[in-house]
Design brief:
Elements lengths: L6 H5 L22 H14 L5 E7 L2 E7 L25 E2 L2 H4 L18 E5 L3 H5 L4 H6 L16 E8 L5 E7 L11 E10 L2 E10 H4 L5 E7 L9 E3 L16 E2 L4 E2 L16 E9 L6 E5 L2 E6 L15 E9 L8 E4 L14 E9 L12 E4 L6 E4 L8 E7 L11
Parallel strand pairs: 3-13, 4-12
Antiparallel strand pairs: 1-2, 2-4, 5-16, 5-19, 6-13, 6-18, 7-8, 7-16, 8-9, 9-10, 11-15, 13-14, 14-15, 17-21, 18-21, 20-21
């Protein structure tokens, strides 16, 4: 029997059942039916209960809620894998540590300190206007008209790619990303760079993204995303703090956040094109434990959260991954000509160097033995090299590459979005 997340049955009849008049009419600004707006409000109240917030503050045009961390499980049963930072040697960019990226310790206009207290983690606060932009709760959960991050081969998805990949049985992936603020042509466009761990139609993904409709601004955000059914259903995928609502059958959350992480929050500062003194990077690692099989996510070697193994199926990520991928992705409405939409910082390699074309470096995989990382034997993929291109930047010590482009603003980028 199919199990549904606990919140959906509870909100199907909100307003329409209890108050028939509320089911008629619509929002004056978005056209969202009032009954649907009530469903959205109920969902947000359950997703973000006020009594769970220890502290909050404003930053970069968004509200950050600091929420108490779950009680840790017995470390003898659930030890995180010890990992080193991805970047083994000093590079040309500065590491963007958690404190640098999210918490400065200064004060917002209301006198609230921009820092989460010890024992809490930060999360981007979703508001009703975020959901109403999508017209329905289901559309917001699934990512809207252009959907969510997806994988090549999805017909009519509107997504374009430039990435490196290896098909290999593994227990993890790592990479270092220069962080940029890509230009997006409209609020419904998205542009991201990320790592993918996948097997059997299930993925864990993390990186940076600009997606105006989803986040309510054009800032660069750190995101996590997962799908359990090849991106098909609304119920099988989730973003950021939404991921806490799945797997109620196991009385667990899908993503446990630790150590100062800020789920879905804006990353600031970002790299400045052409300025060697303002280049920033983040190191992300995803590793499976050998004991319970949970997947831990690390920021510069610090565990910031994990996906419990029970999240996934035997044919999926519960046993291992079988494909590791890093690269860039954009999405706009499918079936129409490409328009201006940056991948990375918009410079298309190989014409530009380190402070211009976007770079991903130190791409690594981890064997199922749980041993040291291995150097991937990769192949590359580009949806349309005239729009978004790749150029190898590997050397004897690491696998890396430049990636990016400006989409339809490039005269060479012709035709329609797939």
């Amino acid at each position: 029997m199919r199990r549904f997340p606990w919140f959906l049955p509870a909100i199907v009849c909100i307003a329409a059942c209890d108050n028939p008049q509320a089911a008629t009419g619509s929002d004056e600004t978005t056209g969202t039916p009032r009954s649907e707006t009530e469903r959205m409000k109920e969902y947000l109240e359950r997703l973000q209960p006020e009594n769970s917030v220890v502290h909050h503050f404003e930053r970069s045009g968004e509200t950050v809620d600091c929420v108490a961390v779950d009680e840790p499980r017995d470390s003898k049963n659930e030890p995180p894998v010890i990992v080193e930072p991805v970047t083994k040697t000093p590079g040309r960019s500065r590491p963007l540590l958690l404190k640098d990226a999210f918490f400065r310790g200064d004060f917002d206009g209301q006198g609230h300190k921009r820092e989460c207290p010890q024992g809490t983690f930060g999360r981007h606060r979703w508001n009703i206007e975020d959901l109403k932009r999508f017209g329905s709760l289901e559309s917001w959960l699934s990512g809207g008209k252009i959907g969510s991050p997806t994988d090549p081969g999805v017909s009519g998805s509107g997504h374009s790619y430039a990435f490196y990949r290896q098909d290999v049985t593994n227990w993890g992936i790592a990479a270092s990303f220069q962080v940029w603020k890509p230009f997006t042509g409209s609020s419904s466009d998205l542009s991201l760079a990320q790592l993918w761990e996948s097997r059997g139609g299930q993925t864990i993904e993390s990186g940076f993204i600009v997606y105006g409709d989803k986040y309510g601004n054009f800032n660069t955000h750190w995101f996590i995303f997962t799908t359990k059914d090849s991106y098909h259903s609304t119920l099988g995928k989730c973003w950021d703090s939404q991921c806490t609502q799945f797997n109620t059958q196991y009385n667990s959350v899908m993503f446990h956040a630790l150590n100062g992480a800020c789920l879905g929050c804006s990353i600031n500062p970002t790299s400045v094109t052409g300025d060697p003194n303002q280049q920033y990077h983040i190191d992300l690692t995803l590793r499976k434990t050998s004991t319970t099989g949970d997947w831990y996510l690390y920021w510069f070697g610090t565990p910031v959260g994990y996906f419990p193994a029970v999240t996934f199926s035997e044919t999926g990520l519960i046993a291992s991954g079988n494909r590791i991928t890093v690269g860039g992705e954009t999405a706009q409405a499918p079936g129409v000509p490409y328009h201006a939409l940056d991948m990375g910082n918009g410079f298309k390699p190989p014409a530009f160097g380190d402070t211009y074309a976007s770079r991903i470096s130190w791409f690594q995989g981890f064997p199922i033995s749980g041993g040291p990382s291995f150097r991937p034997t990769t192949y590359s993929y580009m949806s349309n090299a005239n729009c978004y291109n790749l150029a190898d930047a590997s050397d004897s010590s690491q696998v890396g590459f430049y990636y990016g482009g400006i989409g339809g603003a490039d005269p060479a980028c012709t035709g329609n979005v797939p």
